[in-house]
């Protein structure tokens, strides 16, 4: 059937189509369309109605939810967000991911690790995905400010949500969804105890934001500052791999 891609051997037929719209965003798109039609048809204010109708299309586009081809390799950590690699630095993991939370499951170990920050503009896909397969151990929401998500201090001052995933072999990956200047709502799709696959949808942040990923000790980034990455597809790191990477400007 046209539109179906059957396998990776070239069999099947595929054509471009606009990605599906996540249910979380459909109501916002419909509200924007209704308001724009009210100005166009009800009040005959075209100078307002037409721009609002275009904005409605932008709202639907913001909540687009494309399919992704997830690498099937237990050694890799996958990007949880689309966007630009804005910071790569060594830091201590957030205290909320390290302290004993009383559940009997250990958090991240103290000590500096590599943190990769991914900045999402309003033009990026905002569905976030699990960087590894495992069990959700913590989902911690922390209220805060709405500073520019590109600033380093946004990791500690902005509204944010920490998520900790543990694999069957005990490896843990923590990452943080951070609200920005425009983002006003972090929406989780998972809760502690849920089992997720690598690349599975785990939440979204509305209207511009950032995601920080804390790599395990002894693991370096395989992406570079300024690189654009794709959630569920780009490999951020290979567990236990440390090497210096240099980009080539062209």
Automatic annotation (TrEMBL):
GO cellular component: plasma membrane
Family membership noted in the UniProt record: Belongs to the phosphatidylserine decarboxylase family. PSD-A subfamily.
PANTHER family the record matches: ARCHAETIDYLSERINE DECARBOXYLASE PROENZYME-RELATED
Catalysed reactions, semicolon-separated: a 1,2-diacyl-sn-glycero-3-phospho-L-serine + H(+) = a 1,2-diacyl-sn-glycero-3-phosphoethanolamine + CO2
Protein name: Phosphatidylserine decarboxylase proenzyme
Gene from which the chain derives: psd
Functional description taken from the UniProt entry: Catalyzes the formation of phosphatidylethanolamine (PtdEtn) from phosphatidylserine (PtdSer).
Cofactor binding annotation: Binds 1 pyruvoyl group covalently per subunit.
Protein EC: 4.1.1.65
